Structure to design on (636 residues):
């Protein structure tokens, strides 16, 4: 063993963690339920003990690890990129949808459905290598600011969830993102924002092509990692049923159902956005992050509902 | 830290590994090149040091981690299952191709191309949940025997590669399988055979569907993880360019090219099947595991060619 590894092992040996793993969570039933579950599945003496290899936890991203209002941040990125490219070459605005994109007309885009969205993504998300695309996303994150908070988008991540991710990893869980957002988009910041490596990010994916040493992004969408697509994406990338799933909208219902349908100890959790003061308050209405079925059926299914206003002592990192 | 973890940490601290990590490899240039590369990228003082997070190694499976003659073992499984189902219900043999499958006529199937293969896979690999399919594969592995060696198929794995996988993992590499074989098929035995968890297996994939708490396998093929598909599969599942890639056929050429086209230290390796006595000898001709371009261009690209007869002291585990 090399000295640096030896030192790391000593450091691990010498650092028992008696501190509260979830300091930004209020002392409510929600926090108690999380800790009770984690202790139950990690205690070798527990009948519900789960080996580390099977400690798979999956997290939705938009509205669950970071904010999603007024619209998905990836859409804001896409619209800004269309606008910039149209400024260089106005001839790319070949359709009403692309003109709406260049004008930032989110309402028109929401009404344009999937076809309109694909036109926008074909210009903002295709025609470059994966590496170039991710460099571009990171460059955008460095300069873009949220329209109402004025914050960096990647600062609008939830401090309590960062603590939960870390707590789970400390307890030898794998923490995966399973996002309706684009897999390459989320990977561009997941390591920095959440300490989650690219290989533990599952997301919506377009076609790609290998050419001359590079993987190029092509227009279109091959796989939508939302609703019933989430269990499919989990099976495809992880190949194991999670024991812990965390989401915030009905797009996550199937993921929680799949997770909690397995044998043995299971944990499903939904984040209810109840905090208009510190973040946003929304649930049953709108285009983004709609939560109906989860609120109606979740409690009877044993899922924990996080009440953001009550359960979180703070929302964003300092 | 719990006692069991503490004990594990102590054990790690107390076990320096001065032993030969590759005892089944002869003392040739091949072995020296592998060890030189691993030491160079893991030594923090080396200019070529690579952080553990980027130590991604990818391995082809058929003909690289286990044997692939006379035909891919997955095809043997598929044919046996078609035959069994036809014995229960002969009406399923609706085409010449399915009749050929039930008769085990591999030549006819090879000539039938992709369409014929899809008919066979639709019967042998679809219409059940992923878990049921994998239970079935494991049950097959428990009883099936190789036609010429009489061995279990999952005993025809290569001992030198098992040592290499372990050596790389001991040096904090991630060892991924990137196989032209079906992802669910390979996952059924990868943990047991190679100590590789399901989430580090990438492969050819058919469509699946989430229904009532289960992920069901449907007929068809969505993604072929071979040739130019391998870099695409790597990007899709790992999201990082490997620094080490190991294959044995021209189906792996693009994976090795993609791997070694990156900046910094890179390692590409091809297994040349030169050992008719202990395994099989084949390269430029045939339907399975053809290796032409790799032999022609590999050495000039700096790729290491394993000569099985010369470089391996033994082939299969005892």
């Amino acid at each position: 063993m090399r000295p640096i590894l030896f030192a790391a092992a000593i450091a691990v040996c010498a650092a028992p963690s008696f501190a509260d793993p979830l300091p930004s969570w209020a002392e409510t039933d929600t926090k108690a339920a999380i800790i009770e579950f984690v202790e139950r599945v990690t205690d070798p003496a527990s009948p519900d003990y789960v080996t580390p290899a099977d400690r798979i936890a999956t997290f939705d991203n938009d509205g669950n690890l970071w904010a999603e209002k007024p619209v998905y941040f990836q859409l804001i990125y896409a619209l800004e990129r269309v606008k910039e490219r149209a400024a260089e070459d106005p001839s790319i605005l070949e359709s009403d949808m692309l003109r709406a994109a260049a004008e930032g007309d989110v309402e028109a885009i929401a009404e344009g459905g999937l076809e309109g969205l694909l036109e926008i993504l074909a210009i903002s998300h295709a025609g470059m290598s994966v590496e170039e695309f991710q460099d571009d996303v990171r460059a955008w994150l460095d300069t873009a600011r949220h329209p109402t908070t004025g914050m960096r988008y990647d600062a609008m991540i939830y401090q309590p969830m960062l603590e939960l991710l870390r707590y789970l990893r400390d307890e030898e869980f794998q923490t995966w993102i399973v996002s309706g957002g684009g897999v390459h988009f989320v990977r561009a910041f997941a390591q920095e924002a959440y300490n989650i490596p690219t290989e533990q990010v599952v997301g919506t994916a377009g076609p790609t092509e290998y050419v001359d040493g590079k993987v190029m992004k092509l227009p279109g969408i091959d796989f939508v990692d939302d609703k019933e697509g989430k269990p499919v994406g989990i099976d495809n990338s992880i190949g194991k049923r999670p024991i812990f799933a965390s989401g915030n909208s009905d797009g996550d219902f199937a993921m929680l159902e799949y997770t909690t349908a397995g044998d043995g100890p299971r944990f499903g959790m939904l984040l209810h956005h109840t905090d208009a003061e510190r973040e946003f308050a929304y649930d049953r209405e709108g285009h983004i992050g709609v939560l109906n079925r989860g609120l109606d059926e979740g409690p009877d299914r044993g899922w924990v509902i996080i009440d953001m206003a009550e359960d979180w002592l703070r929302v964003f990192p300092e």
